[in-house]
Amino acid sequence: MSYRSTPSPATPLPTRPVIRDRRGFALEAVLLILVMFSVIILAGLSAVTTISRTSDADYRGARVSYASEGGADDIMSQLDAAMQDGIINGADIASIQTPEIPGYAITQTTRTTGTPVTRTITSGPFSGLYSLNQPIDIQVTARDSAGSRAMAVLSVNAQTIPLFQFGVFYEEDLEILPGQVMTFAGWVHTNGNLYLSSNNVTFQSNLTTPDSAFWQRKDKNDRLSGVYINNNAGTAVKLDFDSRSLSGPAFKTRSEQKFNGRLMTNAHGVRPLKLPLPANVPPIALVEPKAGGDDPMVQAVKMAWKADWYITVNATGMASGNICKFMLQERTGGLALPDSTMCKKIFKAKPNAFEEGRERIGADLIDVDIGMLRVWSDSAPTSRSPGIMYFEIQGGAGHANYDYVAIRLRNGIRLPKSRTLADTGGLTIATNRPVYVLGDYNRNSQVGDVWRPAAIMGDAVTFLSNPPIGNPNMDTTSAYGDYRCTTAKHPDGWCDILQTTFTKRKARATEVNAAILAGHSATTCDYARAGCSSPQYGGGLENFPRFLENWGSDRVFRYTGSLVSLFQSRVANRYAWSNRAYYDPPARQWSFDVNFRFPERLPPGTPSVGTVLQTAFRPLY
Questions:
Q1: Fewer Cβ atoms within 10 A, N terminus or C terminus of the chain?
Q2: In what helix (H) or strand (E) does residue 263 lie, and over which residues does it extend?
Q3: Tell me: the pLDDT tens digits for 11-63?
């Protein structure tokens, strides 16, 4: 039999995983990683570049901004220099030079905005005073080579401040060292250093200086601990520090703590205040006579050019008996002159009228009878009333009758009326010679008195007390009884004829209401400064108004006005103040005349001083 064999199912063979060829994968991975790192690096580099560019832009922006601010500061300094003559005018603005800063292109525009306006100063060291304000805008643009640009805009005020707003104003160092009790109400400013020392002085308002304040005498190492300054609450606080013991911010902080900042120095940013005079023209020009070479700026300052009554006196006629024959009188605007009869009543010459104890010489006087002037002027004020009278003295050397010519104002209890009822009027007397004031002047303390704006300007101002009671003309006849001016009676009060020696005579209480602008006697140097040897004391503010009598603490000299000194006396400087055997000081009731806070009540021809104050700053990009 045949058969077919059936094969049995085949047993499957075990399978093996398929192994692919992985050659080249490492390279791919490396490339992938490199790509990733490249992206990261590029991103980082991009970020760094962006940051770098931003930082560079910020850096350039900051630098160009600083350049524009520096340019604005440069122009501010130019304006400040221009204001050293006390005024900013169109020529000053036109002369502004565009600053040059290496690496930057600078452009600038400086212009006045609007018209000058009178308003109260509301910021800075002179806050509270009023001034004529001229706003000025400064725009400075700076560009660098990369095109970065910035602009600085600065707003400033050119401030012109009437001098008689200050209770005291000095151009040079100011010393206040009274022996008698003294309380002073009014702003005190000096462009020099301020020296304070006393047992009994109180200041009721601000004291400012762009230099230093010293609780110390200037002539020697001595200080007294009775100097007080009122704080804002009106409380008198004792001064116990100065610019030598504290400087900079420490001085400012202490002043704020004790006096609410009423004592201010260079630490507070106080700036000098200057007359509007050209460079190299001294402040004494203000009281000097007219000169042919005076330019318009000098003419605008000199009282001689402002005067509506200019009187030239030939001093050789002092003993003639009629000084009017030796006077040339000029009036502006068609105003009238007195006839010869009235002239002789108003003006009289008195050579060697009395012995001047301080100057040790006979005073040769041009007596101006203000009472007679008022009678004449008030009869037709619209055509006669004087505003500014200027006296120029010619000749006067080498003769005893006119070797010390001075102006004396007498019978000045009331001043002439104004030309119109709407005008407060007033009278300013000016000369480059010494001025004497006999008795009450512009009195304002009794019923019937009429105050008017008044100023007296000269080389020096000396106050003589009221003549004996009921004897205003210092008569010697028996009709005046015990008050006649004779050696037998010796009444209290000023008598020319009894002042024939340097013997001190008893004064009478006297009142003066007028601004004073005159020369002073200065201490030669500060004992604490190198090179200062044996300094000679000049007398200080308390002796700026001069006296020649025995006043004493029981005789009051009542003064209200403004005390201004811009120069040292040139005529009344024969002897130093230390020669003081000729007088005893009065009890001083001195204060600032608050009427002068109003522009319309200032004396005719009031001088002004100026400064520049930054009011706003803003950067533009």
A1: N
A2: strand 263-264
A3: 555 555 555 555 566 777 767 777 777 777 767 666 656 555 555 556 777 88
Please say whether the beta carbons of 208 and 270 come within 8 A: yes
- The residue among 220, 158, 227 whose CA lies nearest residue 610 is 158
Rounded distance between C-alpha atoms, residue 77 and residue 19, angstroms: 89
Task: Give the tens place of pLDDT for each residue, 496-530.
Answer: 988 876 567 899 999 999 999 999 999 999 999 99
Identify the burial level of 588 via C-beta atoms within 10 angstroms of its C-beta, where 0-12 means exposed, 13-18 middle and 19 or more buried. Answer: buried
Residue listed under structure tokens 């209890």: 413
- DSSP-derived secondary structure for 416-484: PPPSSTTS---EEEEESS-EEEES-BS--SSTT-----EEEEES-EEEEPPPSTT-TT---SGGGGGGS
Is the CB of residue 501 less than 8 Å from the CB of residue 550?
A: no
> Do 251 and 265 contact (CB within 8 A), yes or no?
yes
Evaluate whether 107 touches 98 at the Cβ level (below 8 Å). yes
Which amino acid belongs to residue 274? K
Please work out, in degrees rounded to the nearest 5, the angle formed at the alpha carbon of residue 43 by the alpha carbons of 37 and 44. Answer: 90
**How far is 521 from 540, CA to CA, in rounded Å?**
8
Contact call for residues 205 and 185 (beta carbons, < 8 A): yes
548-604-565 Cα angle (round to 5):
45
Measure CA of the first residue to CA of the last residue in the chain; give whole Å: 120
| Percent share of the chain, pLDDT over 70 | 90
Q: CA-to-CA distance for 568 and 610, rounded, in angstroms?
A: 21
**Buried b vs exposed e over 136-166: b needs ≥16 C-beta within 10 Å?**
bebbbbbbbeeebbbbbbbebbbbbbbbbbb
Q: What is the C-alpha separation between 349 and 327, in angstroms, rounded?
A: 11
- 551-566: per-residue pLDDT in tens? 988 899 999 999 999 9
